[in-house]
Amino acid sequence: MKKILFAVSMSIILASCQKESAAPVLYDPPASNMDNGLIDFEEWEGFHLSKPGSDSRLNEDDALMIQAIQEVFSGAVKVEGMANLEDPDFIMEVDAANGEQQKLLLWLGDEGEESHVKRVGDSNAVYSLDEKWTDRLRQLVGNDLE
Known about the structure:
It is a single chain. The protein is 27% helix and 27% strand. A hairpin with a 6-residue loop joins strand 1 (44-50) and strand 2. It is of the alpha+beta class. It is built from 3 helices and 7 strands. A 7-stranded antiparallel sheet has the order 2-1-4-5-6-7-3. The radius of gyration is 23 Å and the shape is globular.
């Protein structure tokens, strides 16, 4: 009887050791090249954010800030037929490591609202950022330019 009980106990122990652990999955940041088509190049060197007609400008080359902005823009969803937005709140210039630059227009929604971003020169598409990404973007930009 002891041998059977020992064998059953060992089987249970061995079986539980072989199960996959349910360890939490840590956030894996998106690649710089966005699958949604908003940004064309792979590696960002930095970005500049300014209000149209203003001398105030946020220049950013910090890797963590760049990664956070990439995360926000990777959540953008292309919306067809909504390209006629007027007067953007911000102009964003994204610098690639290879020297290329891409310019974006940003309509920043209020807290809890959608935001929109559009590539300069692309008259066919606007990208929408849901409320979560708007709130995150507002946190990142803060009051630096408002």
